[in-house]
Structures are given as structure tokens and as C-alpha cells.
Amino acid sequence: MAKVVFENVDKSYPRRERDGAIEQLDGKEQKVRPAIAIANTIPTSTKAKSRKSDRVGVLHDINLIVEDGEFMVLVGPSGCGKSTLLRMLSGLETITAGKIWIGDRLVNNLPPKARDIAMVFQNYALYPHLNIYDNIAFGLRRGNILSENGKLSNSNKLDDFLVGITRSLPRKLRYLSAKEKSVRSRVRQVASLLQIETLLNRLPKELSGGQKQRVALGRAIARNPQVFLMDEPLSNLDAKLRTETRAQIVKLQRQLGTTTIYVTHDQTEAMTMGDRIAVMNDGRIQQIAPPLEIYQQPANRFVAEFIGSPPMNFLPVELVAPLTLAHPQFKLTLPEFWAKPIQDSNARFFTLGIRPQHLQLGDKDESNISVTVDLVEALGSETYVSAHLNEDIEATINVTLTPDKRVAMGDRLWLSIQIDKIHLFRVDGGKSLLC
After folding, report:
1. Nearest to 141 by CA among 181, 111, 183, 177
2. Most exposed among 179, 249, 256, 336, judged by the fewest C-beta atoms under 10 Å?
3. What is the number of domains present in the chain?
């Protein structure tokens, strides 16, 4: 178990040069000038200014501390850099700048095998020719592990040779070294923990997706690493199995107490699994906080929109009095606690954010919103309604209603806003007024 620290970490890649590429221009093929030839015609002063643009930035100024034993979730849309950050920690990617610490060790230049981490991949990465027992034991046989009496079991070439050539023989005829006995004990312990004892003699192709995922987890757990890294391990599972496996991973992490960094694009996984969540976008961390704080107090418009289903609604508003916001279709009088944030913002125009769950059916009133229903999705426990503003058909708004509220497509509704649940964001940059 160890604390993980990312300190001012950057990652960038060199731009690819199109050397002698062919382009279609006006219906004719034309050869593009090689990048090197073009570079030779550029003045030296211009070259100096464009050096920074010679690289493509992927991660920018990442500062993150994952406490010992914490379950940290990295969440964000595809391409935001979360998997790259995980691969940099594991040693599969080099970093461009900054420092990465695991415990008290700076690991920037350490190879993956020396970092004492275990990674669970999206595609399981099981060896198809090995049975489940040997898949779990694979990493243990290539390192030193503690034997049952607590002593270090070192690798011995003669022992390894005898173990290897007798492995396919009947169990009574197999040679077991002290290390192999420790491996067997550890594999059985992990198999019992994951409830896969009956699968140990099967090949990966004979398992279901959920069983394969448990084997991949078992292989990681068996090594007893300082840090677990999980890169979207549930994305290949169906909805029911994903829910079950999600609960198993959280339970296992609590039992083992191992520092875990989990990457996902699924906000439901992020909200239900993590002690804290780091929301990422465009290679930057947008907010780090516990799940409920992320949901209730988003730092900016991106976080507010990404976390929550259906996503938050956004409407442009104007400050027309000290605590009064106006939209072409409604006016709102704000609670007193908004006075200072609005004054400090020194702005007149804002973006109003309101979650679908905080809109209710109301009566005709200047503080309510008039909409026409476009789509109704009845889920049983709740009903999702998508509508457009009556005076602006391009402006859509989502509402979550209780199942007893019956609405149909084409209905005209008045929606009231829970004024204590609103969010206000700056128009430029999208930062929340309360952050």
C-alpha cells in the first residue's frame, strides 16, 4: 500500500511530418512539399516562435495526490488523457515533464516491473494457452514471494526446471519447490477470495466475460502490489454483470486496503465506486472531490454537464436587479446568499444551470418556464421528458418526473425551478460563481 503523487506532470508527442504526401486539390492529385523542405524556407526567428507547436500536448500540469488505501476514480470523455495518465504511472508511457511518486520512490525512470504495481486491462489480457491457475500464478513465478512460514522464497533454476517439466504430470508425480508451494497457496487463497476455485483448470476461452474479469483481478491481487491500476475493466460486460462486478471490486478494495486508481468514462461507475473522483477534460483535471460534492458543487460547466444523468440544463440569463435574473421567458429572484458571488463576479450575463430532477410541474407564472414536450421516456421508477421552450424551439430542456405524473408528446407544460438548487456559471470560461 502506498501514496501516489503526480507533480506538475505533462505529456506531449511530436507532430507527425507529412513527407511527400499526396493531396487532392480541385480534383487533381498534387504532391505536398515535405515538412523538412518547408522548414528550410522559414526564417530563423519564426522557427523559434513555433517550436512549442512542434509537439501535441496530451496532458497539462497534472497535480494529483492519491492517499494510501484510497479508491480514486479518473473519469472523463474519450480522449481526455485518463488512460495515458494511468499508463505513465505504470511505466508503459514516458512522461515529458514533472514527477511521479509511488510511496517515497520517484518512479520516473523505473521500468514497469520495478514499480510494484498491478494493472487490470479492458480486454483482460489473459494468456489463452494457459489454464486459469497458471494465468494467476504467472507473475508469482517470475518474482520472489513470501512462503507460508513468512520467509522469502527465492527463485532457483534447478527447481524451476523440475517444476516446469513435471507440471503436466499427474498431481502426485509433480515436483513442488518451496517457491511453487508458496505460489499454490497464494493462488488458492486468491481463487477463494474471488470464488473461482472451480475454474482453475479451465482455459480462458471456456469462461464468460464476468469470469474472465475476475481472473484478471485475481492475477493482479495475487502479486499483492502497492497500487492497483484499472483501465475501464467493466466496459466489455453487459449491464447486469457490470453492476455485480462493480460491487465486487469495491468490496475487494475495502478488504485489501490497496491504493487503487480506476479509469472510466461511465459516470455511474465513478459516483458509486470512488472515495474521490478526478474529472478530466482536454488533458486537464477539472475538479477533484468526493462524489456527492462533485454532483452538488460542480467547479465549472463541463463538470456540471458531464456528471449527472440526464445532464444539467443550461439557459442564458441576465442580471436585471441585485438579486433578479431574467430570461426572455421567465424571471427569478435569488436567495440572499447569491449577493456576494454575483457582486464579486463583476458580470451582468450568466449561464443558469438546473438539473432535470430540480424541475417540477407548475402553474402559469412569470417565474416558471413554458415548454412543449418532444419525447417521453417512462422507465418505471421515473420518467424522462425532453421538451423545447415555447419561444425558442432550438432551446431544449430535460425534466425528470415521478411516474405518477402523466405527460404525452405535444403537451404544453409550465415548469417551476427549485430556486435553492440552481447553479450559476460565468459565460466566459464556464467557472462556477461558488468556486
Report:
1. 183
2. 336
3. 1
**Any idea which residue has 506538475 for its cell?**
8
| Residue 330 dihedral angles phi and psi, to the nearest 5° | -160, 165
In DSSP notation, 10-52 reads: EEEEEPPP--S-EEEETTEEEEPPPHHHHHHTS-HHHHHHTSG
CA pair distance 175, 184, nearest whole angstrom: 12
Q: Considering the domain boundaries, does residue 295 fall inside one?
A: no
Nearest to 281 by CA among 306, 259, 248: 306
pTM: 0.83
Query: 416: phi > 0 → left, psi -120 to 50 → alpha, else beta; which?
Result: beta
Domain of residue 397: give its range.
312-426
**pLDDT tens per residue across span 299-351:** 999 999 999 999 999 999 999 988 999 999 999 999 999 999 999 999 999 99
Cell 514516458 belongs to residue = 94
Residue 301 lies in a domain: no
Three state DSSP letters for 235-277: CCCCHHHHHHHHHHHHHHHHHHCCEEEEEECCHHHHHHHCCEE
As a whole number of angstroms, the distance between CA 16 and CA 13 comes to: 9
The C-alpha atoms of residue 411 and residue 390 are separated, in whole angstroms, by 11
Nearest to 424 by CA among 363, 358, 362, 338: 338
Per-residue pLDDT of 130-147, as tens digits, reads 999 999 998 888 765 544
- Cα 360 to the center of its chain, rounded Å: 32
Q: Which CATH number belongs to the domain containing residue 382 in this structure?
A: 2.40.50.140
In a domain, 262, yes or no: no
C-alpha 96/C-alpha 110 separation (Å) is 15
Consecutive H or E run containing 120: strand 117-120
Edge to edge, what strands does the sheet with 97-102 contain? 55-66, 4-14, 97-102, 105-106
pLDDT exceeds cutoff 60 at 364? yes
